[in-house]
Amino acid sequence: MRRGTSRDIRTANRYEVLRQIIAQSPTSRQELAAATGLSLATVATLVGELLDLRMITEVGFEDSAGGRPRGLVAVNASGGALIGVDIAETYVHVELFDLALNVLARADEDVRPGESLPEQVVGHVAAAVGSVVAQAGIEGARVLGVGVSVPGQVDRATGVSEYAPNWNWHDVPLLDLLTEHIAYPLYLDNPLRASAVAELWFGAVRGRGDAVVVNLGTGVGAGLVLGGALHRGVSNSAGEWGHTTIVLDGRLCRCGKNGCVEAYVGASGIMLTLRELCPDSTLLHPEDQTATIDALAQALRENDPVALKVVRETVKYLGAGIADLVNLFNPEVVVLSSWVASALGEPLVAEVREGVARHALPRPMAATEIVLSPIPTDPVCLGAATFALEGALQSVGQRPAPQRARQHGKNRTVTP
Amino acid sequence: MRRGTSRDIRTANRYEVLRQIIAQSPTSRQELAAATGLSLATVATLVGELLDLRMITEVGFEDSAGGRPRGLVAVNASGGALIGVDIAETYVHVELFDLALNVLARADEDVRPGESLPEQVVGHVAAAVGSVVAQAGIEGARVLGVGVSVPGQVDRATGVSEYAPNWNWHDVPLLDLLTEHIAYPLYLDNPLRASAVAELWFGAVRGRGDAVVVNLGTGVGAGLVLGGALHRGVSNSAGEWGHTTIVLDGRLCRCGKNGCVEAYVGASGIMLTLRELCPDSTLLHPEDQTATIDALAQALRENDPVALKVVRETVKYLGAGIADLVNLFNPEVVVLSSWVASALGEPLVAEVREGVARHALPRPMAATEIVLSPIPTDPVCLGAATFALEGALQSVGQRPAPQRARQHGKNRTVTP
Ligand SMILES: [Zn+2]
Ligand SMILES: [Zn+2]
């Protein structure tokens, strides 16, 4: 039983009711009570608050069997805009959403290998955020907040990127840097949590209790949904599956340890495997992960033997690593997400299913489905936007206080 | 947000209130409301039910600041007895508890290496259960239930041991076999879950949200407390850390896979390491895990170099394996439990702390404490007894229906 202040509980309940309305509009207070487990009286109060905030609207009545007609509410899509930012090692994706979480505008920027300074990354984010607001043609006042996802370990309360392995960032006050360019409330988290929430709201985890969302990109990790909610861990750093050991004393990982899962199944791990198996392969684009993975994906679709060999060698590790998650969490579903999974697609998933079955225990394996993320847009942008929505609901009644603690006197270190 | 029927929620709330009363008697309804997050009205109703069941009693009043005196309740220790059974690979421990979960009687039986038939194990359990009831001199009518923990994967609903690797049991209807000897209601689960609940109620996890209880015995595994509650997974088989891969293509494990954590850090894994490092060691008692681990523990206390070498070699794997749990779950505490941990004691824990720090990421590592289980008796018996208590509360109002579904026509297979 999680405990919290009555204010925390009220915010959580308000958020849960809005989530249900966004997931299924129109809906009645009775349906919301059934879906959330809250009393009808509590739901009625929370619906009243959301109506006052103009986040939802009354949309008519439905007949109830033998009773009075029931009032229906729906999300007010134009009641506000949310921005989700997915900062990855090779790109920045930004999407602008209406309150129903439909994408209204999108902007992408490439992050090139040399660009490891926070100011460079912040520049890309600022440009793309400016672009989506301009494209959507909305007034800034309607932007309720910007959720920002950055790889590695983050401190949500202070807005600091504590450790981003790809750029060797340590304690970078990312939200403070972004505040110099972006006037909207900002909320920081990482892609593991963003993609897990996206699957929970709109994807393969909808209506499920226990799930693992495996992110396969430059970095790899696992977003955890346990008991129907995001599992963050005591210091918001749960899910670091990429840095669990799969081969003791194995390949050197960029985190400094040996034999991590990421060293074999992250984009550069796959490139290294390709180089080892076939040093002269035309699939290999040195220094360009995206081009290499795209070439591999194309060759895989054409049943190219080298591509198949690379994928099977990768799945030796990936299958064992996902089996570890199945044995530990006993989830209903494992979702493969992020750009490497999405590029390699169903041929990868088919290999992964076999690879996991070779390593997982029969009982948890029988209970687990392994699927590709069904979300057509960038799940990390979507999840980051939900963090902005959560933040906006938390701030109700405490405006115009800033949405996060500001950093004072904390030094930032960037080791190039 | 976990959902369930209103009956489930009521049972869970009744159990939570009783747990709080057992943890701290005497207490007031106001304190219980604060501790559980339930409303005072709900707590008052549940306290009334527990009073009717004679599980708790009124014990007087305390002054409240400026208000009416508050009624105090306490657990009625003599309101019933609970039995906890810990079936392990090398022993059966049985403890009989009063309702305050004080141990009133205890019986142990050795399970010898050849004894792998369910009937043999059931014989030990029946003898020990008979012994504790006789020792305690209580009438059978007061025994509310018997919680039985058996290693491996179990189906709680049907009372079947689906897979017990040490004896190669497959689909053994253990509770049906026990019912032929034991008349009390029986509840089946496994030691990972039993020890985790014991730590949550009375041990190192009390008052904490996220914790991992690492069981080090013949088998190894991880009991998971997430969000303040036991994480079972979708088919009650979460926590199989012993069969996660730490050395791809490494040592053969008894589960049939290679390179599992258990193959290195389970009791027979440690024996194998001793044999590899020092084949003629006098510490080695072939075919006797208990004697070998005891000899190792004694030698470790005397700073014997061979013992130290074996422990350090074991911790190479154990440290990496526990670091995986720290990186994945980001827990507040990791508790080392079960007989191997308890025999090797603090010298092991000191080595483990260093070993984990070499492999875990700094942020989750900084948030985690690593401790030995502080529970002086067998935590698995204690946890199993709480499962019997939970079952007894569930059955309120539906007596005399049996506590579990009976097995009909399901074949049991024992491959020797
Ligand atoms: Zn690593
Ligand atoms: Zn194994």
Automatic annotation (TrEMBL), chains A, B:
Residues 405-416 have a biased composition (Basic residues). Residues 397-416 are annotated as: Disordered. It comes from the Bacteria. PANTHER family: BIFUNCTIONAL UDP-N-ACETYLGLUCOSAMINE 2-EPIMERASE_N-ACETYLMANNOSAMINE KINASE, ROK (REPRESSOR, ORF, KINASE) FAMILY. Belongs to the ROK (NagC/XylR) family. This is ROK family transcriptional regulator.
